[in-house]
């Protein structure tokens, strides 16, 4: 049986995607598509993704790299005549794709996003140096050295301007109540996974 | 009426005193205009000037007043004496504001002014005060034809205003289309959910209303008379007939859905699971809140597809070309029926443009909130496959040819087709052409009647000369052509309401019906006072006809835009005053000039144009007569003058009620009096006509196309008579037209007819 | 004016020797001049920014902000919570509104917070420092403290995204917010009109999609240059960092020769109020804001 | 002192646009007494500022001429201009209205000869042309103004210009001592035909109406096309007076937008379709119109007009809500950015001129009333029993096209008549 234009995927999105219940409210005006600074680089603008969700194109949506291009600039959100929280829906769709393992391989933003989270989740605060290095080395050691060399001048400048501390590599900032913090995040994740039906 | 005493008043204000020799004008009024009393005044429209005129009327027995001042459109109230005949010589806008303020122009400007004084005097002498109709009667009862929501609304609203109503409904119960609905779309905030229809409530109110008499299973088998005195023969299914006397009629005969059998490509007739909106309402009514079952097998409905614009907005000529304006709302409402019963049912609305204006947007949002899916697409076909249907369409957003192959139910949003009865215009047009000597249309019409084609059933069975129903505007709808005047049907005292007038939803139909009831009540009141209805509202004049001169040519009876004139047993025209709108088309049509109004006649215009002083052939001062529609061309001339857009001093302008009232005798008279040219300025005609009397300018155009023979007989160039379509905004174009025409006349030379 | 006290959320990038160290330093100096006391929220955590979504999901991210707000409520009661970082402010305010709109989110957030021995009530406003300046002081009041007007310097007020959308400052337009220009004018500088005031700098995608975000940066700087700006001023640490740090990269990629200083409003105010270059943390600029340094020296 | 004779069988009509005029005329032609209150100096309202109507492309002032003629010859209607209802007390069938009359500084002696206008030097923005041009500070509101009487702008009162105007008038029509006054009278029922105002385009920030001179509103475009307008009917763009041949029309400028107007304003699609005709009229095949839309709402037989325009090769339709407009500082062209959602095509298209099809916002009523008028979420007056004998008419009740506004006004006249007839029956 065809899943075309049945609501199964829409229902899944409503259940499992942040602010997913808004998807049905889109009226296909396209203002979001035209407002996105990275629009030119997307396969599918938000409004089209919403239509695809309504048309039941689950795989096409979840394997798309479109939502990973969101810079969280909120242009779409403030212009949407239906007040859809598009930025959040994009994040939510990306999250769903990631959780289901459907997001495109080597999606750099996805890698950065999870690195960022893991970085902050460890100590409660972001360690900018580790994050940057992590990003440079995401594609392996060799590439990482190259990336880091390419950005060397920037890094040195930052150090000079006292805005980057090489010592951050060995510890650095963090909160005191790490255990409470970790427990809190664990609990939040638990609740969310239950609600969104993630294993 | 007492003996005629003409008084001429010449204003010196607004620069008239400086630009013109008013003493000379007074002398023209005296010597040529034969006015008994002549007064100049430095500021005629002020309280003192008005009092002077009033005193003369009271003390000097003045019966006819010629005012030489500004345009008749200015200071209308100040000079609006109702107890005497008044003519206005337009010296301000018509002369000093439209002529250059130069020494060289002084002579021609003065000549122009003197002519207008002559014309004003000549005109007023031919006028008599309209008497109205002393026998005017009126029946303070409305007939409402059609017992749907529109008809019921008209009846109830009229009753609330204190009028009696006779309501005729063809079926056995009130309610019409609305009675077939499970629910209606909301008509008030918050525009979220389907509502109960008002049918039961309204029907009960009608039943309880002593002012409203209802005939069920009945039709109007004969409608004769005129506003104020219609006689209605009501026939019931049982065969009985009753006569009701009413003053005005509201026609609320509603619509039928477009026949979905004409849409086999959308699966109608091929699967029981393809229904139209009425079919879906029937299913919903039967289900009454419980889940709607699949018609073919009573199975569970999991997927419903709504196909918008089915057989509508069609440019192939096969189906309805128009949009019915209400189907989008209806489909959203119907999708909600399913969502209310079970939110898991998939409802997809396939549309090209969703048309839900106003706070219909809230209803759209509400549909989306309830999970109705909207897809911009074009449906190419619906195929039945067992108990399901496959709906194939182009998804216009995803740019994809796709199909929904598991639809349990497909709802086709077909449009509204009005129940407007017989299209009388085809025959009428043929008759007009035949009267003008062209029989081809009549032959075609006769042929069409003989082919045994199914003829529509008349709604009103009017005994009118021009046919049994209200003329239709387009696609069978009986709407007005006028944007500013939606209730101007071409049958005075008969007003359309609801979807028979125009495709519409229930909210609009109720509003429309209330307005129609208002107009019907107004028609009743006006008929009682012998007054014209819009656009010459309040006019008490009325065509007077000298039947002894009539040749029974029928031109007046077929050309009257309002069907006001019937034919009596002896085939003489029978004027129905209360139907008449005082446009003068009959006067213009009459080849033997036996039709005139008291204050607007063959003579009032004829004497004006003859009063003009036509210089001889060698003067190099041609004379051009302009007959200008008083509603558009004349104001355009006034406003051109306000802008000081100057034009030729050789024109003399006479405002006419409508170009349709222009009788060719005026043209003949002008030419034989030595005018060098005649310009006729009327409104745009054709499909988007702007003539306030519907076809006056078009008729004038037809008549003038035949004036060529006359010109030939007089050995005159055909350019000497020209018609122009002029709009009220043509404040630069009109002076240009005049100047171009004056140049043309100069080129072809002066008329050889001068001095005869 | 009486002393004002706020519960302060500096955010990760404002920490010592982090990327917007200079923002924190100049903010502290500015507050000294304005008689503002900033009480740091004890043990605050990262806001999660926008980019945490892949791993973080929804509720864990809300929990991050809820923890900060709960700590603020507990330790700095009766004060408004104020952030200087656009992302910190946005995350906090967004979390606050999400919780306010859903009792379920409130209870879920509190269930999570309970694990850390905290609870959230929602009794503090979440504000950006720019709001404090505009709303609690106002331009006339801010003008009063100016000792060294920034005369003759042309600034491009770069508002960017997250201090502007989706919330922004009350009464400001999303497309053409004026407060930064007004602030510049209040300090005696000249605000040039240009059309990239609210263009996105690429945000977190500066890392993952460098060529795309650098195009954004290029457009912003180019427009500022074309309209005669000598300096860019911004309220957002990520905007500052992206637009300043990547100028070299942008020059390489697009063949441009950009070298425009990118400063914080707090630095402008500090200098205009007579602060030293050190107080204004002008040594924290990768591209030296020499015109400001000159005034600070005077 | 202005004196208004009225009883509780009089109908008060507030607003002298086409809806108010219609309501007043229909009631008066039914034998009822009416007081018609208009806040501007002349009747006619919004439609008098339109160049043409859709779909006939006829001129609105043509209907105005008829309505004014009906009015001039009907003694049952008392017209008060420059008048605003400030308060209504009492109840159904027995209201007392207080109306504030602003001084016109010109009395009924005025013949509209225009000498005062010639005499003064000062110019003021011409509201009739949406301030796109200026007019002398002693002016006739427009060429068809009714009453046909000049107005002296309050800004010159007390200046030498005012004295010049007074000196120029030979008819004693200029009265510089006129003061604001207030009149009170009875009414049995009140028709609110207060109309609409174009949504404030400056609020739609992405389109830069407040920043870009070549972004104008649809109502302003009407003035450009009109012979009585600031460009005498030539379609020239504001920045440099260049012929605007390539024009974009942005639909739903404010409408169908929860950031602005929640409702669909119904008329704007048709208005833009109509305006493409102005472009064709002016430039023939050299003109170019692009309509950016969400749904084209050419309802009922207006569909014909849509189909006709679709066949015009100079007109392009793009299903897209434009994201952003940017005016090029050098060329003056306005570049529109967005995405055509039919198949996903991005565009950044320059146009000579951009016309925002602004939505209808109901005019706000400032009067003190016995109870708040029940209206919908957009502020349009609803038909509701708790509104008693207050009836909305025309665009005060719904975003309507002219045709439907007149129907609504006609219906409202009957509702008011029902009340005063009831009063008459009781009073005998």
Short description:
The complex is a heterotetramer of chains A (199), B (756), C (298) and D (428). Chain A has 199 residues and is mainly alpha-helical. Chain A has helices at 8-16, 31-35, 46-54, 58-62, 75-79, 86-99, 108-123, 128-136, 141-150, 152-160, 178-195.
Provide an overview of this structure:
The complex is a heterotetramer of chains A (199), B (756), C (298) and D (428). Chain A is mainly alpha-helical and 199 residues long. Chain A folds into 2 domains: 8-99, Fumarate Reductase Iron-sulfur Protein, Chain B, domain 2 (Orthogonal Bundle), CATH 1.10.1060.10; 108-195, no CATH class. Helices cover 55% and strands 0% of the residues of chain A. With 756 residues, chain B is of the alpha/beta class. Chain B folds into 5 domains: 1-129, 3-Layer(aba) Sandwich (Rossmann fold); 141-254 and 457-529, FAD/NAD(P)-binding domain; 258-418, FAD/NAD(P)-binding domain (3-Layer(bba) Sandwich); 544-596, Alpha-Beta Plaits, CATH 3.30.70.20; 614-756, Rossmann fold. Helix content of chain B is 30%, strand content 20%. In chain B, the strands form 8 sheets. A 7-stranded mixed β-sheet of chain B has the order 13-19-14-15-16-17-18. In chain B, helix 17 links the parallel strand 26 (624-629) and strand 27. In chain B, helix 9 (327-341) packs parallel to helix 10 (360-369). The longest helix of chain B is centred in the C-terminal third of the chain and has 24 residues, at 506-529. The radius of gyration of chain B is 31 Å and the shape is elongated. The model of chain B has no long low-confidence stretch (mean pLDDT 95). By secondary structure, chain C is of the alpha/beta class. Chain C has helices at 21-34, 53-56, 59-75, 86-101, 103-114, 129-137, 139-144, 179-186, 205-208, 210-226, 237-245, 247-254, 265-272, 290-297; strands at residues 4-9, 36-40, 81-83, 126-128, 154-157, 190-191, 231-234, 262-264. In chain C, strand 5 (154-157), helix 8 (179-186) and strand 6 (190-191) form a beta-alpha-beta unit. The longest helix of chain C is centred in the N-terminal third of the chain and has 17 residues, at 59-75. Chain C starts with a strand and ends with a helix. By secondary structure, chain D is an alpha/beta fold. Helices cover 22% and strands 25% of the residues of chain D. Chain D has 8 helices and 22 strands. In chain D, the strands form 7 sheets. Chain D has a 5-stranded parallel β-sheet, with helices on one face. Chain D has a 5-stranded parallel β-sheet with strand order 13-20-14-15-16. Chain D has a 3-stranded antiparallel β-sheet with strand order 4-5-10, with no helix packed on it. In chain D, strand 1 (11-14), helix 1 (18-28) and strand 2 form a beta-alpha-beta unit. In chain D, helix 1 runs parallel beside helix 2 (60-72), helix 1 runs parallel beside helix 8 (402-427) and helix 5 runs parallel beside helix 6. The longest helix of chain D has 26 residues, at 402-427. The two termini of chain D are 32 Å apart. The mean pLDDT of chain D is 96. The chains are: A mainly alpha (199), B alpha/beta (756), C alpha/beta (298), D alpha/beta (428). At the B-D interface, helix 6, helix 10, helix 13 and helix 17 of B face helix 1, helix 2, helix 7 and helix 8 of D.
